[in-house]
């Protein structure tokens, strides 16, 4: 009977939304849960054995503190599972392992304290919400608060955040995030409701890149939270999926929050839209390698979601590990469906397969007994899987090692086998399989198959073209020589196509191509790159290349890929600045402010887009993402970015010890004229002196009460209710003892501190050091006690210059190291200038 030893790296679904490996450590509880899963699978199948291996690779930064951590493999290798037994049983166990993975992930949701409802400060409030989320999703939500020694350095309100830590299985974690966001909306007095639509219609009603949904959101100011696009299939649902259409056409809840009238209106609009799409949608099936579909679901889930987002389509994948290979795509029309299918097949090309065949040379060597021991084979596959991150199997019937993984993983396995001397004696054959798009076949072959013939002649390896499906084909590289096989693969990879696509307005196409194509031929010859321009008709039939709007594609062999960008620049030089170099820029705005900005600045945002030709793309609500994307011509992008930043305000809280002198100065006419009016007029920075006085009065009252009662308890209460205090502000001085470092006095300084709020928009961040220079000088002139860091590098003279050089000289080190480190780009920390900026308005 044929036996198989199969090893794989065991890890949860990979996604940029949560942590699966960086903070993942090997611990007893995790190991116990994996062992319990393996025991239940062994009990189910009986004739297979499952073993677990753990790996803890040394951290290079422990020896070399400045070393950059670069992963050696593409897959987390903390846990490796090896299954041995009859081949069919081993593959069935693999299915159960993938579907029953107990490994949890951690999702961190960071929200500025100023963006949360006041009632959330009540522990009973958020505890109730967390428990409700846990019961509904089986995911654990916890609130991570900074300790006394871990307070944030920044004085900006937007950076004083609460960290919601959600822990659980990947699917449950995504559901819990949605439930938590809905609960927070409800605390803000927003009405919530649920809409149920078949999952396959979710992306269709949104449109390509949510072009249909976003105008609805802009108009009604609702938040809409879509569930994860992939259902959580497990062993229980697998047995009924073939006969239960409800599982395929399931209707997970879509949560909608906002004004009551608008929520009801949006529900009706989306229901009507879904009915229309269901009647007119296009769908198509295609076949891919079943293991590659598993790999996509485990390691390329974000890319699959992006494909659906870009095309307004839905990809119905078979259950994980099911060995089914049929994929169904639903879309609004044939163009979107075909583009989706091409993108899925393109993802499949990232996975390589390799087979290394061995035989025992008719029993001539004693070491041949190695292949008769299943424990030896299990050890071999475990080692190869751990060093590469690939799935590795040894099958005794053909006597071969099968490797399935990325190109780097396959090369790592080859390297380890090449270093294992005794295996070379038994080597019989090596085969590499590379999947490519049918559109690239002619490019790979060359004229009369010239490229392939040259590679075979140079390397000594055989290369075959094998058909595979409607969209892709397979290149097979084979050799009986271990080294020649890799040489053939390497030479082939150098000839594989490297491509980029970009957008050029169609009005420029003829000018760039030239009469008879002379202009573009000259450029192509110079850089050795082939260029294809698509007219409106061709573009409509394709739906774009790598980007939805891209209508030009450039292609060259991988060995010449450096010239792709050179060619793009050469083409763009023939276009006027306002129409060329459409680039992407990201802007961070706390996600809970997006709805407010759309409400208050809707007309302004429309004018920004119209005047600068820049498209503003807001993130999906369910992702709770702060990143707003701006896409447009490079010549206008900086202006558009500044105009958007002008809408976004922040509060800088300047900490000062509470004193009678402070209250007197803040109440004075001189402070109003020399500080408040000057900052408002010159730098558009508002000093909220009323809030500062109220803060001072409240703090003084609390201090007096604390001295009359139990100062320790009150100190603790004040700390928990003043999260904006920075660890840097009171750490070295108090009003009574400017040089004290005692920990008790540290807590007293937090209790006795007062803050002066400075409100500014993001475009005025460069002015903040100068504004603080003016504020600190005025306080010093009036003998107001300050914390030690507030006077860091301040000159003894009371006479201050108002020039920008003065502010730069005195606050360069202080701001570069502490206060503005997270909001001003690294390249600007050491060079401050304070020009008068024109406020852009419409």
What does this structure look like?
- Residues 698-746 are annotated as: Disordered.
- This is K Homology domain-containing protein.
- One of its GO terms (cellular component) is cytoplasm.
- The structure is a single chain.
- With 842 residues, the protein is α+β, with helices and mostly antiparallel strands.
- The protein contains 33 helices and 27 strands.
- It is globular.
Alpha-carbon distance between the two ends = 80 Å
Biggest sheet details: 9 strands, antiparallel
Shape: globular
Strand order of the largest sheet: 2-3-1-14-15-13-16-18-17
Strand content: 15-25%
**Oligomer category:** single chain
Number of strands: 27
Mean pLDDT: 81
Number of helices: 33
SSE-based structural type: alpha+beta
Please compute the radius of gyration using only Cα atoms. 32 Å
Low-confidence stretches: 57-70, 234-248, 710-751, 792-842
Helix content: 40-55%
